[in-house]
Structures are given as structure tokens and as C-alpha cells.
Design a protein that fits this description.
Chain lengths: 421, 166
């Protein structure tokens, strides 16, 4: 073990054992493969999907809970203590939350695909227990943070949104089993919008304000833009949800417009950081990250188009796919390929006892293959949804699987280096 | 964003200057690939000039200041790990920086040969990568910590003494 093991740690233990964040990232990869596989075998159901139990809903939850939430948890456990300069309360609850969410996602996804009522309750219960631990640990860390108010604000709102998403999820499951929910569709939209933009979106955006300047070595004041984006996002999310519950179209359209402006401000702030950054060559990871920002704008635009009744074919499925895969998954994969070698490098030394070169932990070819097939997957499935072609969606899902396999080669290389040294 | 500590700000400005050198070297390597570049080319000449004259000063002065004035204070405050880790990186970077500076001086005088170009290229490539990673860690972790670590008086004293060494 190198000195790196205690970097940013030492007495304060701000650097976690590498096995904690890595287990979240690696299982997220397995769930991603499972999600693409479910889509591959149920391609015909995707284009017309508009909610309801079945394989597509299972694939959606493999992606949202299995990949996006899992990875957000691992990244949050590792990076929030560094950013806030406050050590994580304990390590074991983080490990416990992993096992609870992992088991819960498997059971929940299976139950959704096979219409298994008890599995829905059990899976959701396990996931909720794991997420409760995550909320407590992350909330405790944010409570002690003082130096990053805008990031903390995003974190707090994301945690509140996550809690509401879980409650809405239980209501929906209860309605699937025994009915009684007045407006299932409105609660489903509440659950989806809050999960995508409230929890995962705000988490991704909040972390961007730390990670993007860090990768680009940028020191430019974007806090005003970040606060403006945050306030507009709050208005957009709350306004949209109110509009859905009260069936007020103009409020939904105004909220979607506010969301679009918030997204544009966020992207402007990110570009400003990149322009001011000392590091200009940021590699394939930032190609993914930049493209993901484009999908964010397209996704919010599609959301607005949907409520304005603009005739885009299969808009619900297209909107969901663009924001979940085009924006959030693409962004996450770009970030992961930067932070996994960085974390590994903190825990090992090379043969001469020096800290390893990041390039020795970052094989380029698998990442290029991953990027090419990931973009192909996003493109094919999006077009497949619009033209209602199961074949295109199937080819897209197969491309997604190849992308995951390439990323697994990259991850495997890091694991081998960690074991060797 | 500027750091509120003057000392952190000076170290940040050092990082910016070092990145300029590193980027210039990176461009020379990227453009030349396998063939040794012509040292009379203005961009190559500028990069070599920066490497020959700036690296040694930037690295030695900067590293010594951090190790003697900052890591010791962090250790006294109970944060041992960061100083240990950054010292180990300094130990890896310093010989690379000195070798690149020596090779750049030799190239400015006599041009690159088939023998010294591959060494310059590989040593510079390792220096570039280690330097980016090191600066990233200092910008992310060390410099923000100085805002908490140094009171206004100590900050002023350290900034003044460091300015005098530049």
C-alpha cells in the first residue's frame, strides 16, 4: 500500500477503502448489461411504452436504480467527504446499503418483469432500506459541510426528492397490487419526474460543479450561474409537478421552459469552466460528457413538446430514453472513466515505489470502443422508438451490450492492477 | 475563482505557469511523433526554452516551499496523509523535471539526435502526466485547505517569503 492510501485521509479517513466505491460502480455495470439484455429481448415493447408493469419497466429500473443510483451512491460516499472535508460517519453502513440496494434491485426488476406482487413489496422494501441509509449518511455529511453551499443545496434537494420518489414508488406498487390510488398516471409522472430531474438530475448537476472544474483544472467563479440554475430547477420541478396534479397545461409548459433555461445555464457554466480550465486535452471521457449535455437539452425540449402536444411519435418512450440513457447514463460513463483510475491510483504504487501513471490504469482502446458503441446504441434506439422499429431497437440494445463489455475490459484492467500491486 | 489565501493564490499562479510549460512540451511531442523536431522551429524552440529555464526553478522552489512550510503545518494540525502523498509525488517528479530541463538545454545547443529524442520524448511524457495529476490533487485538496490552515498573519508572512524566492 502506498502513501496514496492515506491521501486526503490520514486521521480524517476521507478516502474510503477502494472496495467500497468500486463495488457500486462494478455492480452498476452488471445492471447496465442486464438492462440492455432485457431491452434486446423485449424490443417490440419499448416504442409504445407508457408505463405499467412488464419487462420495459424492469429495464427502466435496472437503469435508474441499478446503474444511476448505485453509481451515485458510490461516488457520493467517496467524493462528498473529500469535497466537504468531512469524513464519512462509518464505513459499514455504506457497505450495508450496497447489499440492500443490490438485492432489492434484482428482486424488484424480476418482480416487475414477471408481475410478482410479493417480489415488488420485498424488492422495494430492500431498496428503500438501503436508500434510507444512503440518505442518512449523505445528509450527515452535507450537514457538516460549509464550504460548498451550492453543491450542498443540490445534494439536499436531491435527497428530499429521493425520499418523495421512494414514497411514490410504494404508492404505485400498492396500486398495482390492490388498486385504490385515485390517479395512478399522475403519481407515476410525479415518481418519474422527481426521480429523473429531482434526484438523479440534481445529483449529477451538483457533482458537475465539483468534478468538471477539477478535471479541467479550472478556477472560475460560476457560483452565480449555479444558484440561478438551482432556483430555476426548483421552480421547474415543483411547477411541473403541480401542473400535472392540477391538470394545468400552461403551468407545465412554463415549468418545462424554466427547466430548459436552467439546463442552458448549467451547460453555459460548464463550458465556462472548460474554457477557463488549465487542462485542455480531456480525452474521450469529455466527449461523452459534452454529448450528454446536448441530450439534456433535447430531453427537456421533448418533455416540453410532450405537454404542448407537439406531434412527435412515441414521445413518452423517446423522452424517457433520451434523458435516462442519452443524458444521465452518458454523463455517468464519462465521469466513471475519469474517477475509477484516479481512485485506483490513490491505493497503489508502481514497481519502483512511485505513484502509478494514470495512463497505465486507463487503457484507451476499450474506452474508444465503449464510446463508439454507446453512441450507436443511443442513436439506434432513439430512431427505433421514433419509427417504431423493433429491429433498430434490438440492434441498439446489442450495441449497448458491446459498449458495456468494452467498459468491463477497462474496469477489469483496473482491478487487475489493483490486485497486482 | 480566486483563493482567499494569498499563499494559495501564489501557488495556483505557479501551477498555471507550469501548465503552460507542460502544454508546450505536450504539443511538441504530439506534433513530432517519431521524428525528432527541428529545434529552430519557433514553437519547438519556445517549448524547449521554457523547459530548460522554467522547470527547474518552478519545481524546485515550489516543492521546497510546500514541503518545508506547508506540509509541516498540516502535519502539526493532524493531517499527515496529504503531505506524505504529495512528497512521494515530488520525489517522482523532481528527477524527471531535472532530466527534461537538461535534455532541453542540450537540444537548444546541439539539436535533437536519434539517441536523445526518444529519451526526451518518453521522459517528457511521464513528466507531463505526473505533473497534471499532481497539480490536480494540489488544486483540489491542498490549496483549499490553506484557507482553513493559515491565519491572516501567517498567510501574509508565507506569501511574502515565497514571493521573494520567485
Amino acid at each position: 500500500m502506498s502513501f496514496g492510501a492515506s491521501f486526503l485521509g490520514g486521521a480524517n479517513s476521507r478516502l474510503l477503502p477502494v472496495s467500497i466505491p468500486l463495488r457500486f460502480f462494478l455492480l452498476g455495470l452488471v445492471f447496465q448489461a442486464a438492462g440492455w439484455a432485457v431491452l434486446l429481448t423485449n424490443a417490440a415493447d419499448l416504442a409504445g411504452f407508457n408505463g405499467g408493469l412488464g419487462p420495459v419497466l424492469a429495464a427502466v429500473h435496472l437503469l435508474t436504480l441499478g446503474v444511476l443510483t448505485m453509481t451515485a451512491m458510490g461516488a457520493s460516499y467517496q467524493f462528498l467527504p473529500i469535497v466537504t472535508r468531512q469524513a464519512l460517519m462509518r464505513f459499514w453502513p455504506a457497505r450495508l446499503s450496497f447489499w440492500l440496494v443490490a438485492a432489492g434491485v434484482i428482486i424488484l426488476a424480476y418482480a416487475m418483469a414477471r408481475l410478482w406482487p410479493f417480489g415488488l413489496d420485498l424488492g422495494a422494501g430492500l431498496v428503500a432500506a438501503g436508500l434510507l441509509i444512503f440518505v442518512i449518511l449523505t445528509g450527515d455529511n452535507l450537514r457538516r459541510a460549509s464550504g460548498v453551499p451550492v453543491v450542498a443545496a443540490h445534494g439536499w434537494l436531491a435527497l428530499v426528492a429521493l425520499s418523495a420518489v421512494v414514497i411514490a414508488g410504494f404508492l404505485l406498487i400498492s396500486d398495482f397490487r390492490s388498486g385504490g390510488l385515485g390517479d395512478h398516471q399522475a403519481v407515476a409522472i410525479f415518481h418519474m419526474v422527481l426521480a429523473i430531474f429531482g434526484f438523479m438530475g440534481l445529483f449529477a448537476v451538483g457533482f458537475s460543479y465539483i468534478l468538471v472544474p477539477m478535471f479541467a483544472l479550472a478556477h472560475v467563479d460560476i457560483s452565480r450561474a449555479a444558484w440561478a440554475q438551482f432556483l430555476l430547477s426548483v421552480f421547474a420541478i415543483i411547477g411541473f409537478l403541480l401542473g400535472v396534479q392540477t391538470h394545468r397545461g400552461p403551468l407545465m409548459i412554463a415549468s418545462a421552459s424554466a427547466g430548459f433555461i436552467a439546463a442552458a445555464i448549467y451547460i453555459w457554466a460548464m463550458w465556462t469552466s472548460l474554457r477557463a480550465g488549465m487542462r485542455k486535452r480531456l480525452g474521450v471521457s469529455f466527449l461523452l460528457i459534452r454529448v450528454s449535455w446536448g441530450f439534456l437539452l433535447v430531453g427537456v425540449f421533448l418533455g416540453g413538446a410532450m405537454v404542448a402536444n407537439v406531434p412527435v411519435p412515441n414521445t413518452p418512450a423517446l423522452f424517457g430514453f433520451v434523458v435516462l440513457v442519452g443524458w444521465l447514463l452518458t454523463f455517468l460513463m464519462g465521469v466513471l472513466q475519469r474517477i475509477m483510475p484516479f481512485l485506483a491510483s490513490m491505493h497503489i504504487t508502481d514497481k519502483t515505489g512511485k505513484p502509478p501513471l494514470l495512463s497505465s490504469l486507463t487503457p484507451k482502446r476499450p474506452l474508444l470502443v465503449h464510446a463508439a458503441f454507446h453512441f450507436l446504441a443511443v442513436g439506434l434506439v432513439s430512431v427505433g422508438i421514433v419509427v417504431n422499429s423493433a429491429i433498430l431497437i434490438r440492434f441498439g440494445a446489442a450495441s449497448g451490450l458491446v459498449a458495456v463489455a468494452a467498459f468491463a475490459v477497462f474496469s477489469g484492467h483496473i482491478l487487475v492492477q489493483l490486485r497486482k500491486r | 475563482m480566486n483563493f482567499s489565501s494569498r499563499t494559495a493564490q501564489l501557488l495556483h499562479e505557479d501551477h498555471q505557469a507550469t501548465i503552460q510549460v507542460v502544454e508546450a512540451l505536450e504539443q511538441v511531442i504530439a506534433r513530432a511523433k517519431r521524428l525528432a523536431p527541428d529545434v529552430q522551429d519557433s514553437a519547438v524552440h519556445r517549448a524547449l526554452d521554457l523547459a530548460a529555464n522554467a522547470i527547474e526553478h518552478e519545481i524546485k522552489t515550489h516543492f521546497t516551499f510546500e514541503e518545508t512550510e506547508l506540509f509541516t503545518r498540516l502535519e502539526e494540525a493532524g493531517d499527515v496523509g496529504i503531505g506524505q502523498h504529495l512528497r512521494s509525488e515530488h520525489e517522482a517528479i523532481l528527477p524527471l523535471g531535472l532530466r527534461v530541463a537538461a535534455l532541453a538545454k542540450s537540444a537548444l545547443a546541439e539539436g535533437f539526435s536519434d539517441a536523445n529524442w526518444p529519451e526526451f520524448k518518453s521522459t517528457s511524457a511521464e513528466l507531463i502526466e505526473r505533473m497534471y495529476s499532481h497539480i490536480q490533487k494540489e488544486e483540489m485538496a491542498l490549496l483549499p485547505m490553506l484557507d482553513d490552515l493559515l491565519d491572516a498573519e501567517t498567510d501574509m508572512e508565507l506569501a511574502e517569503s515565497y514571493s521573494n524566492t520567485l
